[in-house]
Amino acid sequence: xxxxxxxxxxxxxxxxxxxxxxxxxxxxxxxxxxxxxxxxxxxxxxxxxxxxxxxxxxxxxxxxxxxxxxxxxxxxxxxxxxxxxxxxxxxxxxxxxxxxxxxxxxxxxxxxxxxxxxxxxxxxxxxxxxxxxxxxxxxxxxxxxxxx
Length: 148
Hints:
alpha+beta, 3-stranded antiparallel sheet, about 150 residues, 5-stranded antiparallel sheet
């Protein structure tokens, strides 16, 4: 694992799991970074990813994704991870990042609110889209925007 400069705070650190510098055929041609979220003692508590650019995919999935293992939820670790990814995106000259979440994912909605993100839309996940079957809330997501 590689720890990139500035990818830690006083609670967690992000270690680079994989970098796709030219993107992925299913995600567009923008760089994508995949991280493990770890406590400072190296306990692995979740994962997150950052997409540095825009595509049709980021319209539905946003620029950031995150998942915290169930036993570690409730400590705002996703918020910490998002703040670190926002700092990285700012250094990569991005000016805004979008986050989408299922409309019934209250923890993720709260994470977006704690980040100061503004809810800008309710979007319909297109049938057949890669996350459509994993979207239990009738194929709808909220779209939040964080200004960097």
